[in-house]
Each structure stands twice: as structure tokens, then as C-alpha cells.
Recover the amino acids of this structure.
């Protein structure tokens, strides 16, 4: 009664003005102007629980944003009801939780049954005063922040005083009475109960998305992990083998748990939110976020596992900040133990980081403790984040997925499914694109053979000195989520749901395919920006110099290709014009501009070209098919579709696997579409028999050659590897020896051709190339691990050589024979 009585007293206006002056909401989602409300229908706002502060805040917000007012009462026909309704709190008894009282929609439902045309809109609103992840203990849990428990009047008053700048308001989609379950039934009370149940599910999903599940106290969690059945089993086995006593092993398990476990706390989350906001404002010109609506659609009832690409130490800070800032619970982040350093480690741990050793395969007890901890997080629905590449990419490419964390996640999911109480799990691929990264210098040093420096507080202080430099913009693109259940249904059928063994026989085959699928989805969300576009065009020139006019035309061509025939489903283009993109590259010091009477020239010196290679590799996969098609016209000026398909088909799956793009269902169809786009853009001409290079204007030929040059390094690596293999013959080389000899030839070619690009002869590229040849069936191994092949590979290699012009083929053959 007090709740409704206050809303009808003169105090309401005064208190509303006080709330409006005191509170500054941090987030209102969606933006009030984006709410799709029918102007002709009355609106009632619905809160998840009676709270005077929520009603007053909502009244001030609706007035400020021009929405139907939430204050006062609203007359509908013969009814007069408060404009802001609330689901009633359950009656509390000493011995148990009581039932929910009747929801307040019954008069509206009865009136609609009596008058069929009488319709209203219900708008659910969730208001969070602070966003502490729920814990069983702690000062903030007791006095200040929203949690899963209902708050008393004193706690709510403290929360209003403390969290005036940390308030989040989440509007739900408007719900019409006619859309309620059973709206056409004559039983109004049953419909009222169904409506309340539907809204409670909505509010529960929003709370789960924003607050996440309740967190156990860290000590309670660690003790539970150390005494879990799987850890006790390992302790018993090791003690029976004559290892240290069970008591000592139990203490060791507790020590491992303390070494691993995070300790997410609300004060640190708030502190880091403010700190990182200031850091991004100083460091970047802006942070562009795309695709978060895909996450919000799943966050309420799925366990989320974020799998971003790993390009910089900034990645995990940036993603956690973006999620927190957009009203999502920050994830628990897997971090290497090397980051658990003085000062930094405790701060990261309280921000949600849990630490793991680089390798622990031979430590059974540590493995059991880590698996038990990870399973507790996953089974309770806590969002996670880890980098499937294992480490940061020094070359700028997407690295092959490491199986460790993926296998542990999959086994935890199967374990919960076998127990019959698992929550759906979704992987969220994220591509993070930088115009300039902090680690530029260290990556170049390490690519040239320099030793990776150990992280330390002193190294962090040295890095802070670079923050005055410009770093441009950064993009966070969310790709297509991968639902674990659907993936397993497609890979192994529905039988996985009945699997009871801890490690199914198909696990070792499925985990690599899961890694490949996630890598492709990350690449499919790549962010094009001015730096990687300029890098694509400039590094395709022989001496890393190009006329400014031609550069702008090539940039326009790359952007237009992406618009008309996107290289990936969720890739993004930067705003602005090619001239503005060149200016941005100049402003960041990535290129130089030389004035000349006949037209300005844009160029990069050796150090700039090496840096640009990293940014080009971020997005090279988006233009793989376009570049390969253009390269086919470099030596042979005309092709029909059949000839072109026969020329490109053998190597395309290998190239697609190297660049981690999903091969199309029909290469012929996408080739036909690509030829059509290149013709529309004026690079090719249609002839009676097919397509041919244009002789005029000359710019068309230059642009086509620059586009084809994008794929030349990848094709050269494949040529050199096959030359070594075919020269040795079947059964003469192991995979390791073949990759090493191919790398040596590539390094020699780079030196002879003046190509100062260590990533061109990166060992991992040749190892991956050999693996791709095996997976595509071109190679297989003997009992002695020697590589075998047949005439099919010889014929395909001979056929593919026709892609190369005689001069380039002669250069490659010369390097091979000299070696």
C-alpha cells in the first residue's frame, strides 16, 4: 500500500525532481527514441519489483526523453491505474518462501475481454543501481549494489546515494495485451498469471545478462574445487603411487586453486571502468563496436564463451570494457601466469582474470584442479573469455587454434549434458582491429629473431611512455555466434547427448574442427580500416611507392569490391573517402608523402613497410578470391570460366585454409560473380569466349595487377614447397623437414628479391601449408612418418604453374635449383 500511496501524494513531484537532479544514468538501452511504441495505444510500464526509487527515476526519464509519462495514474475506459506497475514480491514466511501475490494486470485483461478493441502496451523496465556481481559476502553486496537478492528500504536508500552515476536502465520490447499467452481465453486470472510468468522470465534473463550468476566467495570456491570428486580421485591415485601423502597433495591442490582462481570484485570493476574510459580517450580517437546485439540475444539464457583474436595486450581490457559499458557482464578472462606480476596481477585478478600456466600436461594434479575450476565457471553460467590462438599474433594473421582450452570447455559441456542440467553454451567470435598497436616495435624485433621480453611492471612503465603517441581508432566486431549443441549435432549427430564417458573417442577429431570453425568466424568479422587498406595497396607495389592518385583509386576499388561482393559476412568498412584514409595513415606515421611536380607520391621506408605488413595480414583474407582471380590474368590475358575454374580449383582449398576463410559451396558460382564485378568496375572486358584484360585505360591494368599482387606471396610459398617435395620424391622427407626446407628457400628468395618481410618465411606458415596438403588428401604419411604422394599431386602442381608468368617462374626455379 505504501508503494502506491506515495505515488498519489504531492511528494511525488518533489521527489521526482530530486531524483532527476541527483542521478545520472550510465546506460539507457535501447535509446528511448528507438523504442517502437504505437502512439495510439496507452502505455503502462512494468517493473520487476515494487521500488519507490525506480518509479521516481522512471518518471523523470520518461518526461526528459518525451516518452509516455511513467508518473501519476492513467485512465483506460472505466479503469484508473498507476502508469507504472510492478510485479508483486513474494510473500515471505519464516520457514519458507511464499507464493507470488496476484499480478496487477487483471483489471486490464478483464476490461479487454469485455471490450475487444481495448488494447494497451506493457513496457518492461529493468533498473540496476550499480552492477556488483552477486557474492555471498562483502561490504558492497551488503549495502550498495544491486544483486540477485531483493533489497530492503535502507539498502536501497544507500544504493541510491552511492550509485548515482552507475545506474543502468534496460527497456524491454513493448508487449500488447492481445499478445499475452491465453489472451483470447475467458479465464482472466489464468491469463494474468501467464502474463506475470512471461514477464518474470524476461526480467530474469535481463538480470542474468547484466549481473551474471552469483559468484561464490573465492575461498569457498577454491575449497570446493580442491575437494571435488575429480581432484580427490587424482590425489588418491598419486598417493597410492608413493607420491607425497594425501594430506600434502590436498594442500598443494588448494595452493593451485589460489594460483588460478579469479576474485572479481565490484569496486575494482567500477575503478577499471573509469580508468579504462580515460585510457581509451587518451589512447584512441574512438572505439567502434558492431554486432553486440547478437550477444544480447543469447546472454540471458546461454553460457557465453568469448573467443577474440589476439593481437595486443589491450585486447582483454578492451573487450571487458566494451561489454561492461554496453550493459553486459564482463567475462572471466584466461590469462597467462606471466601476467600475474606484482601490482598488475592482483588488479587483473579482481577484474575477473584467472591465471593458467603455459603448459601443465605432465602435472596431473594441476590439470585436475584447473579442469574442476573451469567446469564450475561453465556449469554455473559465468561468461568466459580466452584466446584460442594461445598467444598474440606477431605476423598479424589469424593463428591456428590451440586445442587445450577448447577441449576442456567441450568436456565440461558434455559433463553437464550427461548430468542432465547443462545450460546452452555459445562461442562468441570477436575480431579486434587496430589502426596502430602499442606493440609495433616488439613484434618487428621478435619476427627478426629477437627474444620475447618477459612482462614486468618496469616494462609496463616503459609502455606508458608511449601513450602520448597517436593510435587512431579501434574496432570491436562481433561475429556469428557458434552454438555448441548445434555444432555437435552437425559433427557427430545427436548421440553426443547420451555420451557418458569423460573423453569420447571422437573428441580429438572434433576439437580441431571446432577451432577451424571459430577461426573462420573471427576472420569473417574483420574490420577494414584506413591503415590496413593503405597497406594492402602500397605493399603490392615493387618498391613500396605509388602515385597518390593511383593509390586513392586502388583504395576505392578495394572498398567497392567489399561492398559488392563481401569477402566475409560481417566485415566492416571505415567511414570517409580514400583521400581521408591516406591522410589518416600519414597522421599516424605509417607512410610518407613526397611532393612532386607531376603528382605527389606516397611511399613507405623499410621500417614502415615491415609494420604495414602486420596490418595487411589482418584483412588479407577478405580479398583472397579477388586477388587470386586477378593474378590469373597477369600472365594470360584472357580466360573462359571453365579454364579459370580448372586453373584455380586445385590450389583454392589450400589457400582458403591458410587464410582461414570458409570455402564456398560452389567455386564456379563465386568465380562467375567475381568476374562480373571486376567487369563492372572496369578491370576486365567481356569477350565472346570469356573475359580478358582491358588495354585501355592504363589505370585499369595497373589496378588489376596490384589486386593480383596480394596473393603472390602465398602462391610463391606454395610453389617453393611443392618444388622441394617433387624434387625429393615420395617417401624421402618428413613433414618437419619439408617445412624447414621450404622456409629456407623462402628466406633466400626474400633476400634476393629485396623483400624485407620476415613473415614471408615464417615457419608456422610452412607447417600449416604441409598440414593443409595432408588434410586435403594430396599428401599422406608412411609408417616411418615419411610423406607420400602420387601423380595426382604432380599433375596439379604442373597445372598450377601456369598461373605464373615465365619471368617469375624462372626466378623461383633458379632459387630452387641453387639451393
Amino acid at each position: 500500500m505504501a508503494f502506491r500511496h506515495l505515488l498519489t501524494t504531492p511528494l511525488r513531484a518533489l521527489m521526482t525532481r530530486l531524483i532527476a537532479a541527483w542521478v545520472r544514468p550510465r546506460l539507457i538501452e535501447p535509446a528511448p527514441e528507438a523504442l517502437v511504441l504505437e502512439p495510439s495505444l496507452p502505455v503502462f510500464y512494468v517493473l520487476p519489483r515494487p521500488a519507490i526509487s525506480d518509479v521516481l527515476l522512471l518518471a523523470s526519464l520518461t518526461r526528459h526523453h518525451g516518452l509516455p509519462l511513467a508518473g501519476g495514474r492513467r485512465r483506460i475506459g472505466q479503469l484508473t491505474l498507476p502508469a507504472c506497475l510492478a510485479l508483486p514480491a513474494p510473500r515471505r514466511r519464516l520457514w519458507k518462501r511464499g507464493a507470488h501475490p496476484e499480478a496487477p494486470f487483471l483489471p486490464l485483461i478483464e476490461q479487454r475481454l469485455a471490450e475487444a478493441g481495448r488494447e494497451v502496451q506493457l513496457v518492461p523496465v529493468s533498473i540496476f543501481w550499480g552492477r556488483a556481481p552477486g557474492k555471498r559476502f562483502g561490504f558492497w553486496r551488503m549495502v550498495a549494489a544491486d544483486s540477485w537478492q531483493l533489497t530492503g528500504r535502507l539498502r536501497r536508500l544507500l544504493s541510491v546515494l552511492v550509485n548515482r552515476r552507475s545506474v543502468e536502465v534496460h527497456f524491454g520490447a513493448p508487449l500488447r495485451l492481445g499478445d499475452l499467452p491465453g489472451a483470447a481465453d475467458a479465464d482472466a486470472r489464468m491469463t494474468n498469471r501467464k502474463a506475470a510468468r512471461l514477464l518474470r522470465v524476461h526480467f530474469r534473463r535481463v538480470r542474468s545478462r547484466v549481473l551474471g550468476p552469483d559468484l561464490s566467495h573465492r575461498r569457498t570456491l577454491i575449497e570446493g574445487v580442491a575437494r571435488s570428486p575429480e581432484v580427490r580421485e587424482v590425489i588418491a591415485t598419486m598417493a597410492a603411487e608413493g607420491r607425497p601423502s594425501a594430506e600434502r597433495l590436498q594442500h598443494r591442490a588448494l595452493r593451485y586453486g589460489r594460483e588460478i582462481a579469479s576474485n572479481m570484485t565490484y569496486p575494482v570493476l567500477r575503478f577499471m571502468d573509469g580508468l579504462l574510459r580515460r585510457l581509451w580517450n587518451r589512447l584512441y580517437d574512438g572505439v567502434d563496436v558492431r554486432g553486440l546485439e547478437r550477444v544480447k540475444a543469447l546472454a540471458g539464457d546461454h553460457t557465453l564463451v568469448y573467443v577474440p583474436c589476439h593481437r595486443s595486450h589491450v585486447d582483454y581490457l578492451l573487450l571487458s570494457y566494451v561489454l561492461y559499458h554496453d550493459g553486459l557482464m564482463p567475462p572471466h578472462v584466461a590469462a597467462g601466469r606471466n601476467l600475474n606480476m606484482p601490482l598488475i596481477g592482483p588488479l587483473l585478478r579482481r577484474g575477473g582474470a584467472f591465471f593458467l600456466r603455459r603448459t601443465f600436461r605432465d602435472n596431473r594434479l594441476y590439470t585436475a584442479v584447473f579442469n574442476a575450476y573451469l567446469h564450475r565457471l561453465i556449469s554455473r553460467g559465468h561468461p568466459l573469455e580466452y584466446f584460442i590462438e594461445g598467444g598474440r599474433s606477431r605476423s598479424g594473421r589469424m593463428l591456428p587454434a590451440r586445442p587445450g582450452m577448447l577441449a576442456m570447455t567441450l568436456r565440461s559441456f558434455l559433463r553437464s549434458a550427461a548430468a542432465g542440467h547443462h545450460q546452452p553454451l555459445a562461442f562468441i567470435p570477436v575480431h579486434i582491429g587496430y589502426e596502430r598497436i602499442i606493440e609495433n616495435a616488439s613484434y618487428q624485433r621478435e619476427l627478426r629473431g629477437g627474444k620475447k621480453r618477459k612482462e614486468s611492471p618496469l616494462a609496463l612503465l616503459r609502455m606508458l611512455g608511449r601513450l602520448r603517441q597517436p593510435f587512431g581508432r579501434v574496432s570491436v566486431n562481433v561475429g556469428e555466434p557458434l552454438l555448441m549443441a548445434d555444432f555437435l549435432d552437425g559433427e557427430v549427430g545427436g548421440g553426443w547427448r547420451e555420451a557418458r564417458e569423460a573423453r569420447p573417442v571422437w573428441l580429438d577429431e572434433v576439437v580441431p574442427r571446432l577451432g577451424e570453425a571459430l577461426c573462420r568466424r573471427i576472420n569473417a568479422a574483420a574490420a577494414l580500416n584506413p591503415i590496413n587498406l593503405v597497406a594492402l595497396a602500397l605493399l603490392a607495389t615493387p618498391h613500396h611507392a605509388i602515385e597518390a592518385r593511383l593509390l586513392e583509386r586502388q583504395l576505392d576499388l578495394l572498398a567497392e569490391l567489399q561492398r559488392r561482393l563481401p569477402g566475409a559476412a560481417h566485415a566492416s568498412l571505415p567511414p570517409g573517402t580514400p583521400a581521408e584514409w591516406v591522410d589518416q595513415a600519414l597522421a599516424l606515421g605509417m607512410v610518407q608523402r613526397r611532393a612532386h611536380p607531376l603528382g605527389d607520391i606516397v611511399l613507405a621506408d623499410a621500417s614502415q613497410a615491415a609494420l604495414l605488413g602486420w596490418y595487411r595480414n589482418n584483412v588479407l583474407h577478405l580479398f583472397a578470391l579477388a586477388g587470386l582471380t586477378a593474378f590469373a590474368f597477369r600472365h594470360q590475358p584472357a580466360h573462359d570460366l571453365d579454364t579459370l575454374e580448372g586453373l584455380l580449383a586445385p590450389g583454392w582449398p589450400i589457400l582458403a585454409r591458410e587464410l582461414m576463410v570458409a570455402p564456398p559451396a560452389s567455386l564456379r558460382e563465386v568465380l562467375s560473380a567475381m568476374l562480373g564485378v571486376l567487369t563492372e568496375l572496369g578491370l576486365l572486358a567481356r569477350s565472346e569466349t570469356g573475359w580478358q584484360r582491358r588495354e585501355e585505360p592504363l589505370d585499369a591494368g595497373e589496378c588489376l595487377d596490384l589486386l593480383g599482387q596480394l596473393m603472390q606471396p602465398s602462391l610463391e610459398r606454395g610453389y617453393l614447397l611443392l618444388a622441394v617435395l617433387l624434387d625429393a620424391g615420395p617417401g624421402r622427407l618428413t613433414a618437419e623437414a619439408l617445412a624447414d626446407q621450404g622456409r629456407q628457400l623462402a628466406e633466400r628468395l626474400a633476400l634476393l628479391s629485396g623483400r624485407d618481410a620476415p613473415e614471408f618465411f615464417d615457419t608456422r606458415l610452412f607447417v600449416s601449408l604441409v598440414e593443409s596438403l595432408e588434410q586435403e588428401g594430396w599428401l599422406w604419411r608412411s609408417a616411418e612418418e615419411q610423406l607420400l604422394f602420387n601423380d595426382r599431386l604432380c599433375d596439379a602442381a604442373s597445372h598450377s604453374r601456369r598461373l605464373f608468368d615465365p619471368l617469375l617462374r624462372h626466378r623461383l626455379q633458379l632459387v630452387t635449383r641453387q639451393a
